[in-house]
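Title: Prediction job returns without error message
Component: structure pipeline
Severity: low
Priority: P3
Assignee: unassigned

Description:
Job completed but the reporter wants confirmation the result is attached to the right record. Sequence as submitted:
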Amino acid sequence: MLDVYPSNCKLSHYAIFTDSFNKGKFRLVYSTFSTTLLLIKETVYTQLMNNKFNSIDSELFEQLTQAKIIVRNDKNELLEVISENKKAIAENTSLFQVIAPSANCQLGCGYCGQVHSKDQMDQEINQKVLSRIKTNLNKKEYKNLHIGWFGGEPLMGVKNIRSMSDALIQIAKKKNCSYSGKMVTNGLSLKKAIFYEMVEEYKVNNFEITLDGTKDYHDNRRYTKLFKKTFDLIVKNLKEITADERFDKNKYKINIRCNVDRTNYESVHDLIDYL
């Protein structure tokens, strides 16, 4: 039970509210501090915004305090966030580094905030990145080195992934660290042969692939720069990978991501059923 009462509390600086919905009856409130999402009535939203905490039902008040949407008046939330982060960094024994081997991507998604170019990491940049990771590994006793391959589309820089993975595996070995990788990819170039090369030779065991709904919805959002559809090709790759006798769900993880907004939310449940 948190030491928070209606007489000594305030609305958290880290509480975010949606617009009202269902004819103005409800809102969602999300705490970026506790990463908790709650459904509340519009009347409760009004009470929160006007600091009328005494008017909130006691059971709901406790939920809101547990979620850190309501906090003590004397709480310095910023200092607490900083303190928690510093503690997590000090206790963490895994070094996670993100590498973008290519700035290019085949897709021309309308909501993408990145500017794509044909630039790739050259040998000089590769060596600087490897040197930086060596330096970071020497800062404390790490047990794991974990690399996130990002982009653009990382598989458009697959040569860099190959050469750098070999070097990174050796760096981790010399430091007595385990090594693993993950990849955020659009899935277009993730052919079965590439997938098993990545997992078996370069220890990339976690993949995140975006499908923005079922076929029609996805193809209206995630198309190539030449406006070609992509859903069927991505799904074909996934089916071939998971149907292969080498696929081991205890060793390899494929997460399907979905960007949801008002243009595709109606397809989300159908996508889940389809998968």
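Comment from assignee: result matches the submitted record. The first helix runs from residue 42 to 49.
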